[in-house]
Specification:
It contains 19 helices and 24 strands.
Length: about 500
Amino acid sequence: MSLLGIDLGTSGCKAGVFGLDGSCLAQAYREYDMLHPQPGWSELDSRAVWESTKEVVAEVAAQAANDPVTALAVSSFGEAFVPVSKNRAILDNSILCVDDRGQEHIDRLVEQFGRENIYSINPNLLGPNYSLPKLLWLKEYRAAIYEQADFFLLWSDFIAFMLGAEAVANNSHANRTLLFDLDRNDWSDELLEWSGIPREKLGRVVPGGTVIGTVADAMAAELGLPKGVHVVAGGHDQCCNALGCGGTTAGRAVYGIGSFDCITPMYEKPDDSLSMLRENLNIEHHVLPGLYVSFLYNQSGLLVKWFRDTFASADVPPTGTNVYEYLDAELPDDPTRLLVLPHFDPPPHHAPDTSGVVVGLKMGTTRGEILKAVYEGTTLYFMEGMDALRRLGIDTTEFIASGGGAKSDALLQIKADILGVPFVRPRITEAGMLGAAMLAGLSTGVFKTADEAVDIFVKRDRVFQPDARRHALYREKHALYRQLYPTLKPILQNL
């Protein structure tokens, strides 16, 4: 028997089958692109992503046919939802968190509730990136779709539903809607009433790790899965990443490197939640009971993908080398003399009227220097957030690196040098799909405890220690970085 983990990102989807001895029996990946129908709009073609997901599942199911899958769970990015009917018809594209639409609804929400009152119910930092403003935009401008939809499902729950499971909302994803009551672990009656969105369109809330059905027989036949595969409610990708990196106790921290860079510390529920608000930190359920997480994140991976497509689209890497390894070979050894403000899309918790900036370009600047400056800028972004965590007593002595970017030696060394703490690369870096598979096994009785699953699946590969000299240089560079946005803000607003 084996376990299937599915992981959806905003730029691609992965699937992996894992044996109960900790081995990865099969992996598959498909990349897809964002759609930008208008300036400021960012969407995914929901039907195309579903087809890509079926492709990766079918591919790994075929490779692991001798060790058949018994249970699966799905990890995915947050906020975005898919309108669907009860008969599993996909009704529209999925509006992404980096999309501009819906700010007016956030302004109205703040005016009527106040930030602290909202945070006491749903402890997130307000902005247009969450599901609620997109749902209200859809209700106003695509009323026919809104009325026709029986459910608005977040992506991990949408994939589970399309496979044959019940329409639900796992609690870590439900938190990303702004309609969720953290303390009650259910939809907020108060926020639902304000929004006018019917509870039944969102599905019932379940904890991550709840068995919510089995793969439909026809779907199992199409994908090459055995009959009766259990479908387990998954969770927000960073929470599944945390489990897949061994994050089962308070005091651990994961650094996910995918479409987004995301620092995820784990802790017990704070006594004073408003202290988190004062430090610009959210609170969310982990996929394991009794634990909570926060997120510090930016669109680093999407920015690196933009760099690849803009500066290296015509390059053909040597056989056996992927394009990122090929580009990393051009990186200079020492910190660059460039500064990158990574606001190429509206970054979290900033006003939308900003943009990316590269400062310090000269005629002799190389492509490798620009790429390294991108790596540096997207990591320098986190230094103030790290200081905020320390003030709250949430400190970290190391980061467990996960995601596709964790395969890069150069990138992990840069991050260790900037943040001044070791970065640990586990043997399996695709921790989102691994964490989903572990959750599936834990929820169906394959493992008695999360720690048992961690002992089997999570092994250290290499530790990247920070270089003291380079860290000191980066502290100096961060002092300049902090001046970039305040100095350029009036210009960026006019642009």
